[in-house]
Amino acid sequence: MRGRHRGGADERFSAGLEALGALARDGASVSASVIDTSTGKALLAVDDTLVQPVASLGRVLLLIETAAQLEDGRLHGDRLQRMARDTATGAGLWQFLQESTMQVPDLATLVGASADAWATNALLSAVGIDAVRERAEALGIERTALIDRVRDRRGPDDAPDASVAPAGELAWLMRGLALGEVVDEPVSNRVLGWLSLASDLSLVAGAFGLDPLAHRALDHGLQAVVVTGSSTGVRAEAGILRGPGSSVSYAVTVTFDDADFQRRLAVVEALRTLGTEVLEVVHAPSYR
């Protein structure tokens, strides 16, 4: 519902709600959800069932299936060869490294840390997109989907985006990881370990004041796990932020007209406004 804004929020999210509403009034499509990790209480909901493109953010589903196959023995320390079909000039480091083969856990580390395009495609070839889809269905994930590999260009026969999701489902998925409930605790912990290395803190998490290259340990009582997706006209983030007062799981997705650079900057500013309020919530004393 482009250009329309619906939803509600805990009073502590008034600035974030207004910022997201301003994006919607300017023609963007916005979906956002913030929930208390412990209780599942909704703190913010803005069109949280709206399915939108989320660029590479759907890689979290790939990491879940990779972790599950490592845990049940279908994958081991296999070394995967960098293949011509996997090449893409998007995010990541493997395309710049001399090493042409890597073990599966190392590739998952690259995917978690930098959304590595080549590593994503190599893992997807090994794990299988059908297995990723079946795992999502088994977990009760109905609208979040990884639908294609990373591509430099998308032709008429390709999916228009690599993945799609509504913010509400993403926030619940992150909560499940935080609670060790996605498949089981070992799988959840593997995925959290990979995502905790993420170096993109440019959106919501840009307000957290953390070192983008090293934020696994507690820092002023904060610990964040973040996964982002960015492409032309798309900015999306899902995460978990633990603080001295509480923990929240959140997601926000925005699609917008990227022909105007000022609109892109406005999207980033709005997401950081929301991040400031997320930060304030987890620093506050328990409110339950």
UniProtKB/TrEMBL annotation:
Gene3D superfamilies: DD-peptidase/beta-lactamase superfamily (3.40.710.10)
A Pfam family that the UniProt record links to this protein: Beta-lactamase2
Location of the Beta-lactamase class A catalytic domain: 33-254
SUPFAM superfamilies linked to this entry: beta-lactamase/transpeptidase-like (SSF56601)
Name this protein carries in UniProt: Beta-lactamase
Organism of provenance: Curtobacterium oceanosedimentum
